[in-house]
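re: that chain from earlier
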Amino acid sequence: MKVTQLLTSAIFVAVSAVIGAPSSRTEGNIAPRSVASGSSQCYFQCPSTLYGEPLAYKDSYNDYFTGKSTHACHYVRPDGMNVACAYNDDGSQDTSTGSDSTCPTQAPSAGCGSSNPNPNTSFKKRSVPKPQTKAERAIQARQYKPKRLAKDE
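^ sequence. v structure.
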């Protein structure tokens, strides 16, 4: 019984250590994103510094304010206050959404293109089925057993 409790405690501590402590630098979340804008595909990235000082990045999402799509980037200021910054597809700050005055005026962006070179890239992650190899298709065909209908006598 005690071994089970110790094992459970150890697993809980290990999972808490991995999940619990947020890091101050989350490069993966700040990475450039590919987002659809009308029929174009735009490439946008939340700013990571302001006047050379690193920003404490929190999260970002595509926001639809008054029917207009903007990119919302959220940060935590050194005084503990949350700051929301809104940007247009071209990376310029969107002032119509009430962005904080301490936000960087320009976000890194690569503009918009007419087509997306990678159709599996999107702002929100989605699952894409992996195509089967020739061997996997052969195994699946061998394992297929259709239901047999009962014969009426």
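The first helix runs from residue 2 to 19.
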